[in-house]
Amino acid sequence: MEKKVIVAKDAPKAIGPYSAGMRAGDFLFTAGQLGIDPLTGDFVSDEVIGQTRQALKNLKAILEAGGSGLENVIKTTVFLRDMNDFAAMNAVYAEFFSADFPARSAVQVARLPKDAAVEIEAVAVIVERRR
Hints:
Layout: E1 3-6, E2 21-24, E3 27-30, H1 48-65, E4 73-80, H2 86-96, E5 103-108, E6 118-125
Parallel strand pairs: 4-5
Antiparallel strand pairs: 1-2, 2-3, 3-6, 4-6
Helix pairs in contact: 1-2
């Protein structure tokens, strides 16, 4: 199976030795995305609401650069700094995903990169569009 690194101009660059996205066959795997503005490299907010919204925008950019999209996501994992932020994160998450929601896990972790409030990763399928 061939694999291909995915780089999205509208998402932050990787901050370590990893790829933001990787296509393998008809699947696209993303690295965890933080609420970082791709232009400034800074968090868009200190709060989970703003960081969740930006993390999902970054995720969308990577998926689209890889030939997929949010509508083709089959699984997400949400890492939270504080599980008390779950309801706020979930409300923003619902703005990006509608019917036929992807499978999802959400966990509280001891610490996230750059002390983020939230990190979100996804697995999506590549659906070739017919002309």
